[in-house]
Amino acid sequence: MQYAGGTATIPILVHLDLKGAPPKISYLRQLLPLLSYHSVSGLLVEYEDTFPYQGDLSILAAKHAYTVDDLRLFIGDCAHFNIAVIPLVQTFGHIEFALKHEAFAHLRENENYPNSLCPSKPDSFTLISAMIEQIASFHNTSPAIHIGCDEVFQLGVCSDCKGRMGDRVWSKAQLFSAHVNRVAVHVKSVNPLLRVLIWDDMLRACDVVTLESSRLKETIEPMVWFYGAQGFPDIWSRYSAVFPTIWCASAFKGASGPTATIPDLSLRVANQQAWQAVIEDNATRVTSWGGFVLTGWSRYDHFGVLCELLPSALPSLVLCLTILNHGKFTPETHALASKEVGYPEGSLISVGELKVMPSVDLHRSVPAAAIWLNSIRQAILCNAFKKFIGSDLFCGWFHQRNIAEGRLSRGVVDQLLGQVEQLIEDFDKLIFESQCLLPDVFDSAICEEWMDTHCRTYLHKLRKISNKMEQVLQFVR
């Protein structure tokens, strides 16, 4: 259950981002043998509004939230496979799912934006404490809890925070640290055995003196996230001088753009390779690596559209896990991952080129692999749509000016109309296929959102173009 990267060995965890597209528990249970096979030792589970909050917090639970019985069943199955479940609950930034509600809107740092909590209002800590108590008590066998704290875009801007910083002569970094420490101490009061993790990005601008004086090293362990191939933040000398344990986070999905439907496998491989280099370069500097998390985002934030669905990203996850367990990316590891997902050609990465549909043995592939292929088909059609509306033929002969003046070539418009009708037919088939496949994994609301966002949007535009072409052709001789 370890990452083999040069001289370092680190436990592997997989992040489940359940906001917006929570798979059915039956599907999540199907994934556990796959994760166990790849030596995954833990799941970082970001519930957001899918946790079955009770009492005064019940308003936070979405209609598609899991039931208590479902989660107990899943956590029990995880224990059977020796996979720890570490809950992630946002307690500072990215807390839109709570602050969007009128009952908690007064706790916003900026009244216009529900993404950041005010750390100075007494009721803020009341809310966070209650959330932590319910999450921590439910996960009473977890080794750690992640309290978020990334991208606190609104910090120290409200009158309460400005007054507090003025009275205590605090910087924004000190205001941030005070809230994080308070939350972490409360976690320890609920369960002294819990390790407390946070995302690191709000600490990246801090020097060693600021980090030392914050006393964060006594309460939390930072998790450094980086999803690119280059441009790593220059933080290792500072972090290693302060924090005894540092965690790492790459990505297997949710890092290819907010509207992506399949991961960019070349970039995902490059991301793992970048992390391998960083770990090896800092093997003697960092005292302890807490764990290596493969993140899998479902939305860029609570209000964003759905990006890659979990089944569509499993081949990426398999590829990334294979790389991590073998310590590097080679033709051999590529071939192993390709074969495991039913792509024996050993060229899984070429799927990302989106030119033709791959030939996949679904009987030897990952759970719900048909949804992966469905997403590839969607991505190919999306590219075809963009290529069509950006083509010389469409832009040069069906411009709004041409239409307004009636300067149209019937031959060209007939040709364009044929292309549009073919795309409409292909998108209709895609939607029908999606309607058959998605309900096996997701509830009806998620299925509809996916098809509206990634299928019907293009279909509506194409039909509008088709109707316009048929209309103008009546007057072209």
From TrEMBL:
EC number: 3.2.1.52
Pfam families referenced in this protein's UniProt entry, alphabetically: Glyco_hydro_20 (PF00728)
Main enzyme class: hydrolase
Domain of life: Eukaryota
Residue ranges annotated for the Glycoside hydrolase family 20 catalytic domain, each copy included: 64-207
Listed SUPFAM superfamilies: (Trans)glycosidases
One MF annotation (Gene Ontology) recorded for this entry: beta-N-acetylhexosaminidase activity
Reaction catalyzed: Hydrolysis of terminal non-reducing N-acetyl-D-hexosamine residues in N-acetyl-beta-D-hexosaminides
Coiled coil: none
The entry's keywords: Hydrolase
Gene3D superfamilies: Glycosidases
Gene Ontology process terms (BP): carbohydrate metabolic process
Family: Belongs to the glycosyl hydrolase 20 family.
Full protein name: beta-N-acetylhexosaminidase
Organism: Plectus sambesii
